[in-house]
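Budget justification note: compute hours in this period were largely spent on complex prediction jobs such as the one shown. Inputs:
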Amino acid sequence: MVYENPDGVKIGLEIHVQLNKLNTKLFCGCSTDYHNAEPNTHVCPVCLGLPGSLPVLNRKAVEFALKVGLALNCDIVEQTQFHRKNYYYPDLPKGFQTTQYDFPIAGHGKVIIDGEDGERIIRITRAHMEEDPGKLMHMGSIEKSKGTLINYNRSGMTLIEIVTEPDMRSPKEARRFLDKLRSILEYLDVFNGDLEGAMRVDANVSVMGGDRVEVKNISSHKGVEKAALYEIMRQKNFIRRGDKVVMETRHFDEARGVTLSMRTKEEEHDYRYFPEPDLVPMRVADWVPGVQKTLPELPDAKRDRFMREYRIADMHAKALTSDIKVADFYEHVALRVCPGAAAVWVADILKGELNYRDIGVHAFKVEDMIEIIELVIGNKITERSGVEIIRTILDNGGTPKTIVKEKGLIKVEEDIIIKAVTETLEENPEALQDYLDGKEKSLNFLVGQVMKKTAGRSDAKTTRKMLLERINKLPQK
Amino acid sequence: MITKEEVEHMGWLARIEIHESEAQAYAKKLSSVLDYFSQLAEVDTENVSPTYHVADIVNVFREDVVRPSMPQEEVLANTEKKQEGNFLAPRIM
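Corresponding output:
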């Protein structure tokens, strides 16, 4: 099946990723651990752009940027430097943003995603390093705000801005790309996507060969999908009315799910880019072989290995490798119990329960997962009880052992079932007779009655087997 | 020649209000500065690669080690308007 893309949708993304696993900011020694801190407590003269302060580049930030570039299959530039992008806005008190311009550190890469009709290559135009601006908080709504609070704790954080070609043909593909990108960045251990503001996206959307519209500063993957859906609809309606879509910048109102026009008077040449005289150029292409060696196994490679090594299905392998933490969890479990069963329990059951509660896999212990799978495989508890144990641990804590005991989940011993079978047959002579007369359905009724007596702890298969054994032994009337 | 409109645009970029009465004077002065620098255009730079930095050094780095930040009072010392540890700016669109 080939995806026709009937509306000629083209989406390109610009993603600002905070390399928040660094200890310090891009150009100064201020800590990056500001997320729960008081405002303006993680700043220094460099962050504030005070006169006389001088930036010095963080070596590890460059290494991280190279890792990202290589993981996105990019070429690394021979020599590069930083530029000043001049604009006057209080999120950067210096009056300019230190960024890269004509020589981004990495470019010409690609990422493979699950597209509308199978695997699809999304080309990466460039990836460049820059500093994050401070955070503005408008008091009240943006239209009626009385003032703006400025916190520079974020100012100077290392960003890598990743720009794609307009290769995505639907909002779904845009979201898939972002999911894949996050997955890769977390594998590289340069990025924690759970932190507020860790990834911000601008989406360029066009339909039917029209001009592109840029939707700025969307903070979630779901938001990007929604904003692109809205833009496509808006632009299609525009064209249907005979109007022409004009190139413009819009803002996404997440609460209302709409995009709104943002008047900007600045154009590209107004930024007056020029080389940052306070920083010397860098020549880091010879670091590439060394950095290449530190690259971990990335999601696609891990998926292929899981399928090969653990003989699990493509679907399971994908579900298990999209999040590095889930992949590691699975591998620990799969080494101790049957890998096929482990895939079902981790990918289908545990992941579902975690998603439902919106919590990460760290909330569950590898040892507990192994114990539950062993109990089920060993036929000590039913699968349903296994799920119940997972839910109980997630909601109330505890260990499989104590929960099995407290809830009496161990499958009932045979003699208890035998007793229940005897009682059931004595209490339901009509149903028994119906079955003997050839009414198969009556057996199901009897199985249900036995299970009711054992409070659902015996499974249907065993109960049925034991009932039939008993009935066959009955003296012929 | 720099126009009055260009002066006003530059003023806007720097968020400086320029009165109409001043714009003409600035246009003239800025034009003369540009004329002066245009002498550089006479130099033949056909086979000269651009200078990105005057010092002929590359790769100056620091290690990723945390150094103390400033106390909040000191950070806010240069502002008159603050609120709950933040700088307080006028409403920004």
